[in-house]
Amino acid sequence: MGLCLIWAANLAHRGHAIRTNLESRRSLRCGRRGRKTRYRQARFLNRSKPAAWLPPSLVSRVDNLRTWYGRLLGYAPITSAEIETVRFDTHAMTRPGIDGVEYQQGELSGYEIREYLLEKWHRTCAYCGKKDHWIDAACVGETGARVHIPGGFVPLQIKATGRGTRQVVRTDRYGFPRGAAGRCKRVQGFQTGDGVRLEQPNGKYTGTHTGWLAGIRITGQFDIKAAAGRITASYQRFTLLQRADGYEYH
Questions:
Q1: How many domains does the chain divide into?
Q2: In a domain, 167, yes or no
Q3: Torsion angle, CA of 79/84/89/92, rounded to 10 degrees?
Q4: pLDDT digits (tens, 9 = 90+) for 120-139
Q5: What is the pLDDT of residues 17-73, one digit of tens each?
Q6: Where is 207: in which H helix or E strand?
Q7: Nearest 5 degrees, angle CA 20-CA 24-CA 26?
Q8: What long-range pairs does 229-236 form, CB within 8 A, spacing at least 24?
Q9: Please, are residues 213 and 161 in contact by the beta-carbon 8 Å criterion?
Q10: Statement to judge: residues 120 and 199 lie in one domain
Q11: Is residue 168 part of a domain?
Q12: pTM here?
């Protein structure tokens, strides 16, 4: 029978969100420098990076993998781990010694490596014929062909959300300040990102809702992001299910 899968998850990183936030911060700082210090000379080519420097978006991916490896290590005696980096040249593998224009205009012309492999295998796993990221991860390594996946197996969906923000002033869509960020981390024992259950006795959203806190206010009015949408209610109607840990689960 081979190896049997007992736990799986799809982890959505936030590298794109980090890059977008950094670009937004850069534009705001450049605008502020132009408005407040017009006499200052432009700064460029005067910053250095350490030898092992990585972009923050990639650092986030590495930290996510380290975090979940450590968590799983606390529940099971993990003896080895396989990581697929998808860095190989299939053109050179099939035709050794190829170079020049023939190499540039070969079978991979116009394709990204990832898209080429997805199209080649019809967007399914090369071993078991199914398609999903967690299945690809389960089949990584020399023992991938002997992995047994039980029928009807549903993986955990994990989304990295980060842990708070350092932004001091909120801005509108034009980049102008519109108000200060919240001064309180917790209100009535709750904080943004907590998993909660809402009991709504009346109104448009009458019923029980579960989700993640999308916003808190010092007045005690909280916003929950649930399947029915974004709902605002008093803190007295919320029950804490899980503390915020930088991830959302579905």
A1: 2
A2: no
A3: 30
A4: 777 666 655 566 778 777 77
A5: 999 888 888 887 777 777 777 676 766 666 788 888 889 999 999 999 999 999 999
A6: strand 207-215
A7: 115
A8: 229/205, 231/198, 231/200, 231/205, 233/198, 233/200, 235/187, 235/188, 235/190
A9: no
A10: no
A11: no
A12: 0.70
